Each structure stands twice: as C-alpha cells, then as structure tokens.
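Shipment paperwork, digital attachment
Item: protein structure file
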Amino acid sequence: MSITPQHPDDPANTHAAYGATADPPESGMSARDSTGPPPAVEPAVLRARAYLSRVAEPPAPALVAFVAEVGPIDAAARVARGDVPAAVHDETAARRMMDKAELDLAAAAAAGARLVTPE
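Attachment content:
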C-alpha cells in the first residue's frame, strides 16, 4: 500500500479521503471497477436513517439492535410514535420529535456530502 495525496473525486481512488490508495491488482481493475457503482439506497431508507441519526446520540446500542430487528423504516416510524421498547425510548425520547431528515439530507447534498448507510 502506498500513501499518496489523491484528489477525492478521482474514481480510481476509493480511499482518497484518507490519502491512501491500494496498489492496483494484477488485472488492473479494482473491486469497484468490476462491480460498478454502489447500488442506490431507497429514498425512504435514507430518510429513515437520517432521522434515526438525529434522534439518538451514538452509540445507542438499544436503537441499533431495534433497527437490526425491524429495519430502518419501521424503526424510524415507531421511534417517531414512541412505540418502542423502554431501552430505545431512553435513547431517543429527548429528540424523537425532531424530524428534520429531509433538511439534513438536503444540507448534506448541498455540501457535497452523502449519508453512508449499511444498506
């Protein structure tokens, strides 16, 4: 591995933000080249993830487990309604009414940022 300054928009440099690039594989193609761009995440999932990231302070283990159990869309809807287990309530009650997901995603897009999700 070599450490060289790279431009963050260079598609050949998937680790540009960290200044590290992997030496090219023998085929000359990176894993990203062979699989294409990452699949788009459904807008509803992005909104749910943006909402959940605002309403709980990390690490929020109960919320993480709840999302793994019911999925981000259902988890977000249930958190907003207050229909969650007690541990999740404790992690989200203070900010669950602050649904600014659309504004957060728009601000991120305007700044050239994106929300990275496990989906």
